[in-house]
User: What shape does this take?
Amino acid sequence: MIVVLVSAAAAQSAPLREKVIIDTDIGDDIDDAFALALALKSPELQILGITTEFGDTETRAKLVDRMLGEAGRQDIPVAIGVHTDAKTSFGQRPYAEGGHFGRATHPAAVDFILQQIRRYPGEITLVTIGPLVNVGATIDRDPQAFRQLKRVVSMGGSVDRGYGDPYSEPPPAQPEWNILNDVESSKKLFAAGVPVYLMPLDSTQLKLDEVRREYLFRQGTPLTDALTILYHQWAQQTPTLFDPMTIAFLDDPKLCPVEPMNIVVDAKGMTLRGNGAPNAQVCLHSDPEAFFKFYLSRVAAR
Assistant: This one.
């Protein structure tokens, strides 16, 4: 009897993990893979599933299958998003098509997202780290169910700063990739009535320099080995870890403090400050040193 009481008390005191679905265009830029790696090393999160979106969503799902298999996490469902005709480089295709850990079938992303929302109303955080194709399709299918998300945490937009070296004179705001590639779905998100937490270019241009890369890649874990292969298939030099900030924010909100703001998406894909009531919590400033200290301590850990 005493053992039962102690176990019940321990269960009550244990922190609840945040239920998340990660919506990703993994396979083009490399930062999606780094974001997924951090999510897999985050005890704060319960990953309900990963949905692929934008372009060749079927091959993206194969990439996720393999990465999850290498990490020993084949328990996480992978769903295929809306296929589009996007012309992207998909440099990490060889990893995806290597034939390792491929699943015979995958559910459709919109069906999967709605199923999970109905199962856990008010509990799910949808993390979007690509163009918002699946988001728009989910809102179109069932806007009432979409409003039962706990929140959306999204990498996207450019409020005061555009693309460029974060240590130089700030470049002016410009259309950001994820917003620009589905402007209409982006507009739908900010009008959906769901709490939106936005990580724009202003706070996410985090350069993984050579010293940090070498430290991470020499750890020799299944996860860091996967990142090493994907990095070399990406075939560029210094990754910018835009997307991992969404996961870092969930793990430790102090890494990207937010402020309320009204965001308006215009026809050109700009995310402008509006004059209406706040429809988003936006992170405009982050500390790269604090972010990388956190990131490397998590992903490099055995």
Residues 16-299 form a domain with the Inosine-uridine Nucleoside N-ribohydrolase; Chain A fold (CATH 3.90.245.10). The CA atoms of residues 143 and 192 lie 7 Å apart. The chain has a mean pLDDT of 95. The first strand starts at residue 18 and ends at 24.
